[in-house]
Amino acid sequence: QPQQPAAPPAGTVSAPHSLKELTPARVAVDSSFEGYNARPLTDGETDVRRIAAMKYNEGNWASAETPEPHWIELQFERPVRVAAVYVYWGFDRTRFTPSRQVELQIADGRGHWRTVSSVSPGENFDRTSFDFAPLEATRLRVYQPAQQGPPNRSFIMWVREVKIYGANGTR
């Protein structure tokens, strides 16, 4: 008798088709490298062939190159139920620029951030997804601890897009 796959744990979202993209009302970053801004982070463009044809600062966001932590904050008008977050790493010439460590954090309502997932992406990956049980939030933050940028430039955070998904039926 064939083995049945284990049922997914309660509270997890099983398939991408059951997700709906959520658009933040506001995006803020801790800093930007000269000539860069946060606009590319939610412009919907993830295709590296198109990004490679653009000026670097049109297809990617890069933080200032400083030894402090860097972050991208995504804010919603009202609480949303978040089921998945993808970070599409910056693209430079022929390679991706993933951070060595990155965390997904939510605001606790008292001015503090709580880490709900932490990932060490590895080298030359297109994107990173965070694993977590669906949660309700009005503010999310993709946080890079101090000096955890790409191996060749550890003081920078370099991202081309952040996508947030909620379960279908989510506002």
Give a topology summary.
Elements: E1 19-22, E2 26-29, H1 48-53, H2 56-59, E3 61-62, E4 70-82, E5 84-89, E6 91-92, E7 95-96, E8 102-107, E9 113-119, E10 127-129, E11 135-144, E12 158-167
Antiparallel strand pairs: 1-12, 2-4, 3-12, 4-11, 5-10, 5-12, 6-7, 8-9, 8-11
Structural class from helices and strands? mainly beta
Instruction: State the end-to-end CA separation.
Output: 43 Å
- Cα-atom Rg, whole angstroms? 16 Å
Strand content: 35-45%
Low-confidence sequence ranges: 1-15
**Biggest sheet character:** 5 strands, antiparallel
Number of strands: 12
Helix content: under 10%
* Global shape: globular
Sequence of secondary-structure elements: EEHHEEEEEEEEEE
The mean pLDDT is 86
Specify the number of helices. Answer: 2
